[in-house]
Amino acid sequence: MSSPKHDGAFEGSITALFARLREGDEVAREELFRVTHDELHRLARQSMRGEAMGHTLQPTALVHEVYLRLGPRLGEWQDRSHFLRAAARAMRRILVDHARRKRTHKRSAQRLDIDLDALVGRYDERAIDLLQLDSALDQLAERDPGSAELIDLHFFGGQTMADCAQLLGVSERQAYRRWQVARGFLHRALTRGS
Prior knowledge:
The chain is mainly alpha-helical. The chain has one domain. It has nine helices and two strands.
């Protein structure tokens, strides 16, 4: 996967920590934070790479917010894959909630500078309203949950396509197919009315 830490022993230690959490071992919570913090911080930096300059939420704060949101449910996950999928969804929700608060506060939509070439196959850069993107992803999830989850993992979770395939339990070819479906859908949804 993306890091040399992702060997079988590392995977096994994460799975063991989740099992200990399910048994009520609170020390396992601290250990899980310690062993997953660097990876989640990398994912947070990736998911925020398109944020506008001066964004008030920093990657470290995003990671801590993910742990706050997922903390009560940490024992529910079976393994690293399950946990990272939940973390990517949580990062998306946190960024969307942050954008909503800013919108309410400023009375204008926060914009993200996202390279749509990477997201929907465009050849120019455009600013996308994060709330519009969230709405489009919710619509995609209703029609094709697998493609929407792939976008969450790749775009908000910073995972490579190979990592996404592994986390979703599909072949890399299937992941690329889902990516194509999602790109087409998001392109149509985000360019409607522009």
